[in-house]
Design goal:
Blueprint (H helix, E strand, L loop, with lengths): L1 H10 L11 H10 L28 H8 L7 E5 L2 E7 L5 E8 L2 H8 L6 E2 L6 E4 L4 E6 L2 E8 L5 H15 L1
Antiparallel strand pairs: 1-2, 2-3, 3-7, 4-5, 5-6, 6-7
Length: 171
């Protein structure tokens, strides 16, 4: 199932295409399948008049480069309201992605609770969990923040340590 999802992600331009059905995949699925998540236009305000959220401002290129151990380019912002994603990538295709889902507290809690078999992580936001494969999810107020990392040459426990450090900067 993970390989089938990774194939779907790749075919639909979802990066990173790793077979994890996180916020980016869910937003793309809703957009492709005519769900309730609309794509945004070029306006700086959404339908509710709220300012757009730039998740690329949550970390610097230097912070991401240090986390990956390799230089990265400028973060690439993708916003499919209410999801705001920023992806940084190294020349070796190692990546860090910050995805922020903004909604009511009950909606972000429900979204947070979708992940099964996740390991609770203490000390970050209101609640946090690590679902493995380089995905750290944090619930804070009316935001669900997912920080993910793809770097194949390090172990999962080291990824969690790095992601916690990035999360502390984001929060």
């Amino acid at each position: 199932t993970a390989s089938a999802l990774a194939s779907w992600q790749s075919a639909n331009g979802v990066m990173p295409a790793v077979g994890y059905f996180g916020p980016i995949s869910r937003a793309k699925y809703n957009a492709v399948c005519g769900g309730s998540v609309p794509t945004t236009g070029d306006d700086d305000d959404d339908a509710n008049g709220d300012a757009r959220f730039d998740s690329c401002e949550l970390l610097t290129e230097d912070e991401v480069s240090e986390a990956l151990g390799a230089p990265v380019g400028e973060g690439e912002l993708t916003d499919i309201d209410p999801f705001f994603d920023c992806l940084w990538q190294s020349e070796e295709f190692d990546t860090v992605n910050v995805s922020v889902y903004l909604a009511s507290r009950s909606e972000v809690e429900a979204f947070f609770d979708v992940t099964e078999d996740a390991e609770p992580v203490d000390g970050l936001g209101d609640r946090a969990q690590y679902s493995g494969f380089g995905f750290l999810e944090i619930l804070k107020g009316e935001a669900n923040i997912t920080i993910s990392m793809i770097k194949f040459d390090i172990e999962d426990d080291k990824k969690l340590e790095i992601l916690k450090g990035l999360a502390e900067k984001v929060l």
